[in-house]
Amino acid sequence: MNRREFLKSWAAGIAAAAAPLGPAGCKKTPSGPPVAHRHIDSSACIGCGECVTICPMGAIVSEGGETWIEPDECAECGTCSRTRICPVEAIRPGVLSWPRTLREVFSNPLAPHKATGVPGRGTEGIKTNDVTNRYQEGFVGVFVELGRPALGTRFRDVERVVKVFRARGYALLPENPVCGLIEDPATGALKPEVLGEKAVSVLLEFLVPESAVPDLEGLLEEAARGVETVFSVSAALRAEPDGSSPFRRLFGPDAFLLPAGKVNVGLAAGIPGCKEG
Ligand code: SF4
Ligand code: SF4
Prior knowledge:
Layout: H1 3-18, E1 39-40, E2 60-63, E3 66-69, H2 79-82, E4 91-92, H3 101-107, H4 129-132, E5 139-146, E6 153-154, H5 155-167, E7 182-184, E8 189-190, E9 198-199, E10 202-209, H6 213-224, E11 231-236, H7 247-251
Antiparallel strand pairs: 1-4, 2-3, 5-10, 5-11, 6-9, 7-8
This protein binds iron/sulfur cluster (2 copies).
């Protein structure tokens, strides 16, 4: 018998002995108003603590024999439920409503965005550029990623970055899922109700002309100022006509090039309307 099976049978024994009986001898089912976030059913939890380490946000707390999920820290990523770590299935999904639903669509890799139909963070980024041709010749795709497991990001940090780019004349790519959250396209301000919401990470995509690359460093420094989470940047570049990388030409000989990049090899070049990538 493995650890999970042991915990399950142990819990079943406790539940059978402790379950309150109704007038006809039936076990009572806990009832109450729906909970608006992922939570732990305290009547089912046996306090084993197994779920604590699985949470990428550190949102599950176990203290004094009780275990619970901190609603404000939970990003609704679903990891605790999806992994079936709980031997008694005490973790409940909750009934999410707007704007909390944002947490799930940006953090749960199985939850597709309604706006884009893409699960995970709601964007394919450069992966399908052969087909989408979002990142075109003469431009640099700038990806700003906010948050990562352990820290996450709030949408107020997302707004900060969008606003700084907007003030320099760069709007988010229309295919990016954050576009639907923008209240004021002139400034990049997001809908106020989303600012305190949290996601594991959010990927922002901008298109900047190659001629503006020398200004990028200052722009990114300004965007990162005041952001309260990890801020990482990557560039999406089209290959030169001879197949070589334009990275050194654009960013100079001293720029740090991470070898583990993503490369599109142009397999969709035969599709009508697609340019060779
Ligand atoms: S849904 Fe994700 S963030 Fe929330 S408690 Fe579960 S694992 Fe943690
Ligand atoms: S929710 Fe499940 S895994 Fe977490 S402490 Fe309770 S019984 Fe253990």
